[in-house]
Amino acid sequence: LIELLIVIAIIGILAVALLPSVLDAPATARDGGRKVALSTVVAAIEQYRATNGKLPHQGGVITTPYSECLEATDNPTSNSVNEELDAYLKNGINGLANITEPVGDCAVDTTTGKSGIHYYAEDQNSYTVCVGLEKTGNGDGYYKIDDDGVPTSGGPSTAFCSGV
Question: Which member of 76, 82, 109, 152 has the greatest number of CB atoms within 10 A?
Fold first, then answer.
């Protein structure tokens, strides 16, 4: 009887130790998908730059710094980064619909198609694209987005960024 109680106690301890990691797995998987989508957007921006010799900006007019929230929609707004990148994304800009976490001032709105992807161009040669994650992280790639839409490194954040 004592041996059975010891075995049950050990199983209980293992279950308690493993439960948090098992419960975090779905959020971690969704965040992984968001990071893949971010890589896809960065690749589209680089293809756009290689083709057009410039970064995408609203209506092609380069005023920097420039900030825009990308929208997942079948009909991207005219003269927007969305419209300029649409042809460079495999499934068009609508393929970003699975990005459902807000980042910076890019609040997610399923009725308008707004996604949690934030595009920021500091100048005509460098940009940062950020995606909102469910889980807070720290270190390389994690940035905070200030009130002006500027990504700044340092400290724990749910914004994961990439760019040049």
Answer: 82
Structure tokens at 151: 């990504």
pTM of the predicted model as reported, rounded to 2 decimal places: 0.74
Contact 89, 44 (CB under 8 A): yes
Residues 6+ apart with CB under 8 A from 13: none
Compute CA distances 64 → 83, 121, 143, 148, 156, whole Å: 19, 7, 20, 12, 27
Encode the chain (164 residues) as per-residue pLDDT tens digits: 889 999 999 999 998 888 877 788 888 888 888 888 888 888 888 988 888 888 887 555 556 677 777 766 666 666 677 778 877 876 666 556 566 666 766 766 555 545 668 888 887 788 888 888 888 888 888 888 777 777 887 778 888 888 87
Instruction: Tell me which residue of 48, 37, 30, 33 sits closest to 117, measured CA to CA.
Output: 37
Q: Report in angstroms the alpha-carbon separations of 75 from 19, 36, 94, 111.
A: 43, 23, 8, 13
Largest CA distance in the chain: 79
Q: Which residue has the tokens 């609508």?
A: 94
